[in-house]
Amino acid sequence: MSWSSVPKQFCVLLRRSDHTNQMANIRYFRGIRLNKRIIRKLMAAAPQSFSNPVEKNHEMIHTLKETYMSLGGSESNMKIWLQKIISQNPFILLKSPRSVEDNVMFLRDRGFSSKELLQLLSRLRGLITELNPDSVQATLEYCQEALQCSQNELKEIILKCPSIIYYSVSTLADRLNGLLKAGVSLSQIKSTPTILELTTQIVMFRIQKLRSCGYDVRTGSLESVNGTKKDFEKSYGRLQLREERPLFNPVIPLKIKDD
Questions:
Q1: Model confidence over 156-199: pLDDT tens digits?
Q2: How far apart are CA 208 and CA 216, in angstroms?
Q3: How many whole angstroms separate alpha carbon 26 and alpha carbon 160?
Q4: Which distant-in-sequence residues (6+ apart) come within 8 Å of 72 by Cβ?
Q5: Closest to 215 (Cα-Cα) out of 199, 232, 230
Q6: Which of 107-116, 123-132, 184-193 has the lowest mean pLDDT?
Q7: Using CA atoms, how far apart are residues 32 and 93, in angstroms rounded to an integer?
Q8: Which pTM value belongs to this model?
Q9: From CA 175, how far away is CA 148, in angstroms rounded?
C-alpha cells in the first residue's frame, strides 16, 4: 500500500501521535537528567526512540539501572554510567530489555563474576544487546582451543579485550593465523589480545614498517604494533628516532690520544 492511498485524517493522527510521544520522551529524558548533548545525539542517530511510547524507553532504562545495581554498581556513579552507555550506543533504547538480561545471564553462566560482568558491561560500549549467545559460545570455544589456554586464562583475555566475543570464528581465525605466520607467539597474543581487534592487513603493514626500523616483533612487544593509527605512529616515530640517533654526542668532541 502506498502512502498516497492512506487517508489524510489518518496521516494527521500519526503525526500527532509521533509529536505527542516525542514531547513525552523529551520530558522523560530530561526528568532522568540525561545530558542535553546525549538527547540531541539520540534524536540524530536513533529518532525512532522518540516515536515510541515513553513506556518502552522507561522499561529499557529501568532494566539497565537494575542490571548495573545488581552487579555491584554504585548509585552515585549510575547516572554517569547510564549516559555513557546510551552515548556509545544510541540504538540500545530500540532493543528489547530482555536481551540485556539474557546476555548478562549467559555470560554469568560462562563463569564471570558480578564484578567482572560489570566491567564487561561497561567496556562493551553499550553493545550488550547485540550479542548472540550461540555465536559467542562458538567464539569462546575457538579461542580457548586456538590460544591453548585454560578457562580462567580465557576469562582474563576477554576482560582485557571484550570485543573479541563479537567477532566470528572465521574472522578471529584469519587474524590469528596471520599473526602466527608473521612469527608472533601465542604467549605474545595472550599478553596483548587487543591485537586481534586489528585486521590482518593493518597488522602486516605495521610489522613491515617496524621492521624497516630494525624492530622485530618476534622478540619484542606487540604494544608497538597495537592501538589506533595515532598510537602506532607515535611508537613508530620513537623507534625511528632511536634508529637515527648517533652513537656519540656530536656536541662533545671525541678525545683522541696523541702518539
A1: 999 999 999 999 999 999 999 999 999 999 999 999 999 999 99
A2: 9
A3: 37
A4: 114, 115, 118
A5: 232
A6: 123-132
A7: 14
A8: 0.79
A9: 16
